[in-house]
Every structure is written in C-alpha cells, then in structure tokens.
Design a protein that fits this description.
Elements lengths: L29 H6 L1 H14 L14 H10 L9 H15 L4 H25 L5
Helix pairs in contact: 4-5
InterPro entries: Br/Cl_peroxidase_C, PAP2/HPO_sf
GO molecular function, one term: peroxidase activity
C-alpha cells in the first residue's frame, strides 16, 4: 500500500466506518477490551503462533509447519515486497504461467479477478487504516 492509500475514495464502500463493528457488549468500550485479560491472552497467542524466531516479547513459539506457508504469504508487508493487494495479481500471474494460458485467457482471468475480487480487496486495503 502506498502511504496515502487511506485517502483514496473507496470503490465500493461509502466509508470505512461501514465495516467498523460496534463496541463489544461484554466490555462496553474498546479501551476496556484492550485492557482486559482476554485481549492480552489473545495477543499472546497470536504472537507465539506468528513468531518465526524467539524474541524478547515472544520467547516461546508455537507456529507449526502447516502454519508456515500462510504466515509467509501474509508477511509480505515489508518495504521492497508486494503488499497483500499486490499478492492478488502476483498469484494470478503465477496461475496463468503454470497453466500456460494464452493472451486471451490471461486477459479473461485478470478481468475476472478484478471484477470479482479486486474491488473488495482494494476497498479492504482502503479501510484497514480506518481514516474516518
């Protein structure tokens, strides 16, 4: 994502707030949720499952080999790599190459990708920063 992507007008949504869930009933506010033991436990579980090596904050790792591939897929958020929206066309290109599609088949595949998945994916990339 480009640094100013959050300023792009959504293609499908009217605003990012359309996807914002209401505050959790159990805690009443997000501040109380974030301070809760439940939240801290879930953050700890995500850290141990997501860690690829021990760190000071995550001394124990629980990532299993079957979770390694999805973790590697979604880790591409560092500079110099394609961000998740860029993975969509990259994966499509790999499929087209593997299947040895001709130019017309390539075009149909990419148009279908954009029509059926691209708008939502771009919209999600727009609202994740939740600018409004």
């Amino acid at each position: 994502m480009a640094p100013l992507w959050g300023q792009v007008e959504p293609f499908v949504l009217a605003s990012a707030s359309q996807l914002r869930p209401p505050p959790p009933d159990l805690y009443g506010t997000y501040e109380k949720l974030l301070a809760s033991d439940d939240h801290q436990r879930q953050v700890g579980a995500a850290r141990t499952a997501g860690a690829d090596k021990p760190t000071g904050r995550t001394p124990v790792m629980s990532r299993t080999p079957d979770r390694e591939v999805p973790a590697r897929l979604w880790e591409h958020d560092e500079d110099g790599t394609c961000k998740p929206p860029g993975q969509f066309p990259q994966a499509t290109r790999e499929i087209a190459t593997h299947r040895k599609l001709n130019t017309d088949e390539d075009a149909r595949l990419f148009v279908r990708l954009d029509r059926e998945g691209g708008h939502g994916h771009r919209g999600a990339g727009r609202v994740v920063p939740d600018p409004d």
